[in-house]
Automatic annotation (TrEMBL):
Residues 23-302, 627-907 form the ABC transmembrane type-1 domain. One of its GO terms (biological process) is lipid transport. It catalyses: ATP + H2O + xenobioticSide 1 = ADP + phosphate + xenobioticSide 2; leukotriene C4(in) + ATP + H2O = leukotriene C4(out) + ADP + phosphate + H(+); 17beta-estradiol 17-O-(beta-D-glucuronate)(in) + ATP + H2O = 17beta-estradiol 17-O-(beta-D-glucuronate)(out) + ADP + phosphate + H(+). Pfam families: ABC_membrane, ABC_tran. One of its GO terms (cellular component) is plasma membrane. Residues 333-555, 944-1178 form the ABC transporter domain. This is ATP binding cassette subfamily C member 3.
């Protein structure tokens, strides 16, 4: 048991890489800190010495100005180094996480979800960047504090200790508040994560929610989470108000206590202008480091959490490079024991397997027996417990769920290989992709959306297959590539690609399949059962063995030449659930479209954020609250000015035999004014926070309500990422960014305003320079705001590709590894990061530009205040001069912050605009129409009639169904068939009013469905959709989100859908947790869950969108049998791809190009020798 080797330290790696460069910045910071103490000293000289000649005054004013300018330049040098370190850090961390994600094992991948990994890259890496900006405060703040105290001591003697003691007491208070806030933040992050996760599931399954009329239950779940989130936000607001109060009052209380102690200790201690105002400016210098320290500490704690998380991720187990032997000869998996993961109960146990070179091996077996796991083992994706796996030559891999990149179709097929036109065309032909290319708007240059969203399932699978064939590898691992395509397409692909006479003839092929028809052509068939090889041999040998395989075949071969398929997809599908739409070419290609959209959006945003948005936000906050906040701020500024004028008046009080009279009155009023000021600040910050939460609630509720009511086509044309962004990023900005920004903006604005008021009242001459300075300032501000907005936009536009490419990589990691493309993908990712850095860097530089210009304006204010004081010094008393100059010294900082906050607010208020834009999109018909609700037992017969019915997908597109008229009697079983794009799926969508009629009507039991509410309609029909969608949560919630049914009813439904055994074997039973998208159930099991939902609902009309793609024939038989027995008296409409399922139906409807071609019983149609006969002949049924 050797000692555990030390974990590699991520921190050390960061320090060695970025430390030296950063230290240069720290050196500049040191100089700047020392310089900041020069000005108060010059000021002392200046105020106290009344007899000095005028030139001395001018010199001093000039010195103050010069000193400030040098300070500005050095400070920005420091910022430059620090920020550049920050963006370098981010790029480095992003790169290292990306590289790690390509090599972690599957079990490690399971322990951190895709979202978490993307978060490491976006949020945690950003934390480091933020920290770097503050890091120097760790040594600089204590140094500034010590220096300030030293100078104060010189000025006021030991009385300073009273003030310092108070400051030290405030630190733990601030610390405590920071800790508490941190705890709340963690809690709130938890709420936010679960809200976003649920939201993203809702968006990906929105179609199912609509079909089942489940929107209400899900929006209630979201609202509940949101309620908790706002509760925490409110607590944080309380804390923030308190900390703002201490933040604001601290410097004042400190100076108050110091002065009080100073004058009361000894009557001889006189508060004159020099002492008072030099001390005030030193206290103002103290203000910043004292507030910065707790902040830095809290950022440090946050970053240390991020550091741990990243370190944890980087220490995950990696796939063992020796996991596969690459070896000459043939391909064997030698007594290798493979495990999927410790908690999976379906592990391939010991396997012995040898595959000779150039043979075609078929792997068959029931759902969940470890077929895919075996393929993963051969790719080296599994953890090997013992034995060995050896593979000779290069590998190509077709996964069960095709992985498609967001690139053109051609790039997806070439996948980094050089283009060979002749071979490329031949492969497209063999994979039956040529017909699809004619339909796709841009041919093979069509840009495919994320996750292949604008291809149907069958098209995706064929592209994935074409990629494998083009790679020209030695070994092909095909995980059920034929399940997603129509039978005639499957036959074409088998003959031209996979089979002995296909393109791949003579290569080693391992084919996992559910289809029976091709098994006779395989060289070797391996039957898996419960993770072990139950039989193996050639087709004829297995038939003679009379084992499980032979029986399996006997049941299915008679009627199965037409086997597994789903949708041949020659149409381009914009429905995520691969419902095929034949979309006319009027639809511009996806790439062009998104490009046009992007340009249109940025053109729109380039128009300034209009006042209407501010107005909208003010209304959401509540007008009354908005006015109150401004009023409170005014009061607070008045109190602050009052206190300082009172102080200057006090310093001018004549000294009579060494003492000043009525000190206590002076102190009392000074204290009262100061405390009043603090109270106003606290009230205003609290009022604003309450308003902000109010706004956040209103805006989120409107957004959610609107999205739940949005029609389906909205989701088909809008990428879900864009909608999710509204719910995550934009709502976050409204919750947590806008209120503090407004607070800071108002604070700095009133601060600057009061400075100008004080200077003007003490030296009226100052009015002359105000206008030119203000002009310069406003010009700089406008110029900066415009540039910064565009740079921020460029930055965020170039940032999202990094994350989308990353999440694409993580999902397709096994494919990337199988094709050995890891290096290329790293290069792509680095290029995307570089593009992002290109827009970050100008952003940093523009901030330096702004800082230097604005601080120059501030320095001019100081200079003129001093200058006019010199000019008018005969008429001015020293108190007022001290007052105006010490105010002027603060103004630089507030002016600087004011510009930043103003442009921040302008950038962030866009979030309100974006949320509003999506809260006002067009909605579908109302869910319930009170005046016309159908009778409670409707529909009792289940009779469906289409009257002269036409429909189109969206305004401006062609009709998909043209003048359908037909009548289905109650209890009839009708099969709907037709080539892809004939309008089969559209017909069912019309029943549920996912598509609204262009003309005509549908009557169910004589009720026109357009006259009743959507929920009344949809909750009375049952559908088993094509793609099984599950949500993360308990199985119970997935079957019955409204809690309408009893446990007995649920168990009964599970029993009928043959899931009883599986659920019964789980310790939690019905509370079995389904993971996101039902990942921990196999595709077949998910399909059965959908069947169980239908059984629970048991309505008179059942729509079956043939959902037999991923199910082995046994399970399929079960489903068909269950439907026949359980829905005996119901009307059943089945969209069939496998004709054998509908040969015993009452009637078959053949659609062709959106019109009725044939409608009669199956036997009559076969005798009529029309379209249906041709299809049946293809399938070997006629």
């Amino acid at each position: 048991n050797q000692p555990r080797k030390r974990e590699p330290s991520f921190l050390r790696a960061l320090l060695t890489t970025f430390g030296p460069y950063f230290l240069i910045g720290s050196f500049y910071k040191l100089i700047q800190d020392l310089l900041s103490f020069v000005n108060p000293h010059i000021l002392i000289q200046f105020v106290s010495n009344r007899s000095a000649p005028a030139w001395w005054g001018f010199l001093v004013a000039g010195l103050m100005f010069g000193c400030s300018i040098i300070q500005t330049l050095i400070l920005h040098q420091h910022f430059q180094y620090v920020f550049v370190t920050g963006i370098r850090l981010r790029a480095g961390i992003t790169g290292v996480i990306y590289r790690k994600a390509l090599v972690i094992t599957n079990s490690a991948k399971r322990s951190s979800t895709l979202g978490e990994i993307v978060n490491l890259m976006s949020v945690d890496a950003q934390r480091f960047t933020d920290l770097v900006n503050f890091l120097n405060m760790l040594w600089s703040a204590p140094m500034q504090i010590i220096l300030a105290i030293y100078f104060l001591w010189q000025n006021l003697g030991p009385s300073v200790l009273a003030g310092v003691a108070l400051m030290i007491l405030l630190i733990p208070l601030n610390g405590a508040i920071a800790m508490k806030t941190r705890a709340f933040q963690v809690e709130q992050m938890g709420y936010k994560d679960s809200r976003i996760k649920l939201m993203s599931e809702i968006l990906s399954g929105i179609k199912v929610l609509k079909l089942y009329a489940w929107e209400l239950s899900f929006s209630q779940m979201i609202e509940k989470i949101r309620q908790g989130e706002l509760q925490v936000l409110r607590k944080m607001a309380f804390l923030n108000a308190v900390s703002t109060f201490t933040w604001f009052s601290a410097p004042f209380l400190v100076s108050l206590i110091t002065f009080a102690v100073y004058v009361s200790v000894d009557d001889k201690n006189i508060l004159d202008a020099q002492k008072a105002f030099v001390s005030l400016s030193l206290f103002n210098i103290l203000k910043f480091p004292l507030n910065a320290l707790p902040q830095v500490i809290s950022i440090l704690t946050q970053t240390s959490v991020s550091l741990k998380r990243i370190q944890h991720f980087l220490n995950h187990e990696e796939l063992d490079p020796q996991r596969l032997e690459m070896r000459i000869g043939f391909f064997s998996a030698h007594a290798s024991q493979l495990t999927l993961d410790s908690w999976f109960s379906l592990l391939p146990t010991s396997l012995n397997l040898q595959v000779p070179k150039g043979s075609l091996v078929a792997i068959v077996g029931p759902v969940g027996c470890g077929k895919t796991s075996l393929i993963s083992a051969l790719l080296g994706e599994m953890e090997k417990l013992e034995g060995k796996v050896a593979v000779k030559g290069s590998v190509a891999y077709v996964p069960q769920q095709a992985w498609i990149q967001n690139a053109t179709l051609q790039d997806n097929v070439l996948f980094g290989q050089p283009m060979d036109q002749k071979r490329y065309q031949g492969i497209l032909e063999a994979c039956a992709l040529l017909t699809d290319l004619d339909v796709l708007p841009g041919g093979d240059q069509t840009e495919i959306g994320e996750k292949g969203i604008n291809l149907s399932g069958g098209q995706r699978q064929r592209v994935s297959l074409a990629r494998a064939v083009y790679s020209d590898a030695d070994i092909f691992l095909l995980d059920d590539p034929l399940s997603a395509v129509d039978s005639h397409v499957a036959k074409h692909i088998f003959d031209h690609v996979i089979g002995p006479g296909g393109v791949l003839g003579g290569k080693t092929r391992i084919l996992v399949t559910h289809g029976v028809s091709f098994l006779s052509q395989a060289d070797l068939i391996i039957v898996l059962g419960d993770g072990r090889v139950s039989e193996a041999g050639s087709f004829s040998a297995l038939l003679q063995q009379e084992g499980a395989f032979a029986e399996f075949l006997r049941n299915y071969v008679p009627d199965d030449d037409n086997f597994q398929e789903e949708d041949s997809a020659t149409g381009i599908s914009l429905y995520t659930n691969a419902i095929c739409l034949r979309i006319p070419l009027s639809l511009v290609s996806y790439g062009l479209l998104s490009h046009l959209l992007l340009t249109a959006i940025s053109a729109f945003l380039a128009l300034q954020v209009k006042l209407s948005v501010f107005w909208a936000y003010a209304k959401a906050v509540g007008l009354c609250i908005s006015v109150t906040v401004c009023f409170l701020y005014t009061c607070q500024s008045a109190a602050a000015i009052g206190a300082n004028i009172w102080l200057s008046d006090w310093t001018n009080e004549p000294v009579i035999n060494g003492t000043q009279s009525n000190t206590s009155l002076r102190l009392g009023v000074y204290a009262a004014l100061g405390i009043l000021q603090g109270i106003f600040v606290m009230m205003s910050s609290f009022t604003l926070a309450i308003g902000g939460i109010q706004a956040a609630r209103t805006l989120h509720n409107n957004l959610l309500a609107n999205k739940m009511h949005s029609p389906q086509f909205f989701y088909d044309t809008t990428p879900s990422g864009r909608i999710l962004n509204r719910f995550s990023k934009d709502i976050y900005v409204i919750d947590e960014v806008i209120p503090p920004t407004i607070l800071m903006l108002l604070g700095t604005f009133f601060n600057s305003a009061s400075t100008l008021v004080v200077i003007m009242s003490s030296t009226p001459l100052f009015v002359v320079v105000i206008l030119p300075l203000a002009g310069l300032y406003i010009f700089v501000q406008r110029f900066y705001a415009a540039t910064s907005r565009q740079l921020k936009r460029l930055e965020s536009v170039s940032r999202s590709p990094i994350y989308s490419h990353f999440s694409e990589t993580v999902t397709g990691a096994s494919v990337i590894r199988a094709y050995r493309r890891s290096q290329d993908f790293m290069a792509i990712s680095d290029a995307k990061v570089d593009a992002n850095q290109k827009s970050c860097y100008p952003n940093i530089i523009s901030n330096r530009w702004l800082g230097i210009r604005v601080e120059f304006v501030g320095n001019c204010v100081v200079f003129f205040a001093a200058l006019f004081a010199v000019i008018g010094r005969q008429s001015l008393n020293p108190g007022l001069v001290g007052l105006s100059v010490s105010y002027a010294l603060q103004v630089t900082l507030s002016l600087n912050w004011m510009v930043r906050m103003a442009s921040d607010l302008e950038n962030n208020i866009v979030a309100v605009e974006r949320v509003r834009e999506y809260s006002e999109t067009k909605t579908e018909a109302p869910w319930v129409i009170e005046g016309s609700r159908p009778p409670p037992d409707w529909p009792h017969q289940g009779e469906v009639e289409f009257v002269n019915y036409s429909v189109r997908y969206r305004e401006g597109l062609e009709l998909v169904l043209k003048n359908l008229s037909l009548r289905v009697k109650g209890g009839e079983k009708v099969g709907i068939v037709g080539r892809t794009g004939a309008g089969k799926s559209s017909m069912t969508l019309c029943l549920f009013r996912i598509l609204e009629a262009a003309q005509g009507e549908i009557l169910i039991d004589g009720v026109n469905i357009a006259s009743i509410g959507l929920h009344d309609l949809r909750s009375m029909l049952t559908i088993i959709p094509q793609d099984p969608v599950l949500f993360s949560g308990t199985l119970r919630m997935n079957l019955d989100p409204f809690g309408k049914y009893s446990d007995e009813e649920m168990w009964q439904a599970l029993e009928l859908s043959s899931l009883h055994k599986f659920v019964g074997s789980q310790p939690q039973g019905l509370d079995f947790e389904c993971s996101e998208g039902g990942e921990n159930l196999s595709v077949g099991q998910r399909q059965l869950v959908c069947l169980a939902r239908a059984l629970l609902r048991k309505s008179r009309i059942l729509v079956l969108d043939e959902a037999t793609a991923a199910i082995d024939l046994e399970t399929d038989g079960l489903i068909q049998a269950t439907i026949r027995s359980q829905f005996e008296g119901c009307t059943v409409l089945t969209i069939a791809h496998r004709l054998n399922t509908i040969m015993d139906y009452t009637r078959v409807l053949v659609l062709d190009k959106g019109t009725i071609a044939e409608f009669d019983s199956p036997t009559n149609l076969i005798m009529a020798r029309g379209i249906f006969y041709g299809m049946a002949k293809d399938a070997g049924l006629a």
